[in-house]
Write a structure and sequence with these properties.
heterodimer; A: 81 residues; alpha+beta; Alpha-Beta Plaits; 5 strands; 26% helix; globular; B: alpha/beta; Rossmann fold; 10 helices; 15 strands; elongated; Peptidase_S8_Ser-AS (chain B); Peptidase_S8_subtilisin-rel (chain B); hydrolase (chain B); protease (chain B); S8 family serine peptidase (chain B)
């Protein structure tokens, strides 16, 4: 049975930007399914298996060259508009 | 007698008596004009007051009297001569100063919206020409007649939806930021009316999106060399919530590439009484956060405020009763009046494009020029930051 996945956003530290493909490869090895690599911003989006706030997210944070891992939140129009 | 100018007198008269001569003054009024006034010093009854020609306020040294024209002349002559009666005036009708009814738009919007006038866009020679301005929102009604002939580049970051704006919000924001000054009908409403428009659809037609889509939009705008990225979107946060490290880093990287990110502070306040914090991602230190004011330069009731040490309102723009382009004709042409910090944000983005054109400013220099040239409002900096954005 396929595990539920949750979407995450990962930022790459300045020292990881020089070899972004290597960081992306390491993120895949850590279980991340990569949707998009944003080279200008140094951001990688995608998903990891399992519910939010479990080990998978922590594993991404431990990848060399990663600065931050955050859950991909819903953002919308400000209320009343 | 010193006669008040204008209308609104009661028919009675005020008599000013010399200091420390109140008793003498009372006798003098009786002697010269036959006026018998009761004194507050004697604690007069209602019957006393009815019988008397007037009342002397002992502590003030002032009498209020009923007097015939002949008696007024007699009192006035006494006032001009030495003695205890010094001044006689007709008693005026006065009323409480009431706050004027908040009349909407005391500003004439025949030629330009109040927002364009409030930020001085109509007085600026800058047009935004040659500056790329991105609006990340619900898309754009590309067929809108007011934008034909303009440079418009689009991209959708919403799966299954084209950039076409079935909501209207994006088209409204693009109108304020970069719409025309001389549309076919109605007032001019666009700040940077010759800027190149980059319309990124990061919110669905229902008005929803996600962090990843918005970051995708920022990336696209940066890659396209947009000097200004306007984001009328966000998510509410509770007080004390840390800002997103990822958006902060993205904003600083965008800045280093010459792209300034500007975002709506949010609409969660309910003033007076409740002020809620600047939302995500406007609460990031390196994203310029925009609150809203109305036509009277008052903070909009909904405008989020500075609640935490980080996550401040940086400046404000026009965000109430804002007229701009709309995606469909609801009976008033393809235009609509709406409100929100979302409407203030594209005004600031448009001004940023004007400054970018005029001074060649990008990134942090552009932020500094926006902040430096704001009109101070005499309101708490926690609500309005540096004040109301102004055109160069």
């Amino acid at each position: 049975m396929a595990l539920a996945r949750h979407k995450v956003v990962v930022s790459v530290a300045d020292d990881g930007l020089a070899d972004l493909p290597a960081v992306v490869s390491a993120l895949r090895d850590a279980g991340m399914e990569v949707d998009d690599v944003m080279e200008s911003l140094g951001v990688v989006t995608g998903s990891v298996p399992g519910p939010a706030a479990t080990g998978a997210t922590g594993a991404l944070g431990a990848v060399p060259g990663v600065a931050s891992v955050e859950v991909d939140r819903e953002v919308g129009l400000p209320p009343g508009e | 007698m010193s006669q008040p100018t204008g209308t609104g007198t009661t028919g009675r008269y005020l008599v000013l008596l010399e200091d420390r001569s109140v008793a003498a003054g009372a006798m003098e009024m009786s002697r010269v004009a036959g006026i018998s006034a009761a004194s507050t010093a004697d604690r007069p009854t209602a019957a006393d007051l009815t019988a008397a020609d007037g009342l002397i306020f002992q502590d003030l040294g002032v009498a209020v009297v009923d007097a015939t024209p002949e008696q007024v002349a007699q009192l006035s002559r006494a006032a001009e001569a030495p003695g205890p009666i010094s001044v006689v005036e007709a008693e005026r009708v006065v009323q409480a100063y009431t706050t004027a009814e908040e009349t909407a738009a005391a500003v004439d919007e025949a030629v330009f919206t109040w927002g364009l006038q409030a930020v001085g866009a109509n007085l600026s020679t800058a047009t935004g020409k040659g500056v790329r301005l991105a609006v990340l929102d619900t898309g754009f009604a590309i067929a809108h007649a007011d934008f034909q002939g303009r440079t418009v580049v689009t991209q959708s970051f919403i799966k299954g939806e084209t950039v076409d704006d079935a909501h209207g919000h994006g088209t409204h924001c693009i109108g304020s930021a970069a719409g025309p000054r001389k549309p076919a009908a109605g007032p001019g409403y666009g700040v940077a009316h010759e800027a190149e428009i980059y319309a990124g659809k990061v919110l669905s037609n229902a008005g929803f999106g996600s962090d990843s889509g918005i970051l995708g939009g920022i990336e696209w705008a940066v890659a396209n060399g947009c000097a200004v990225i306007s984001m009328s979107l966000g998510a509410a946060v509770r007080p004390g919530t840390p800002y997103s490290q990822i958006f902060e880093q993205a904003a600083t990287r965008a800045m280093s590439r010459g792209s300034l990110v500007i975002a709506a502070a949010g609409n969660e306040s309910r003033r007076p009484g409740t002020v809620n914090p600047v939302g995500h991602p406007a609460n990031c230190p390196s994203i310029l956060s925009v609150g809203a004011v109305d036509v009277n330069r008052a903070v909009a009731p909904f405008s989020c405020g500075t609640v935490d040490a980080i996550g401040q309102v940086d400046l404000v723009g026009p965000g109430v009763d804002v007229y701009s382009s709309w995606n469909k004709d609801d009976g008033a042409g393809m235009y609509k009046r709406i409100q929100g910090t979302s409407m203030a944000t594209p005004h600031v983005a448009g001004i940023a494009a004007l400054i970018a054109e005029k001074h060649g400013a990008r990134g942090w220099e552009l932020w500094a020029r926006l902040a430096q040239s704001c009109r101070r409002l005499g309101l708490p900096s926690t609500d309005v930051g540096g004040g109301l954005v102004q055109a160069p």
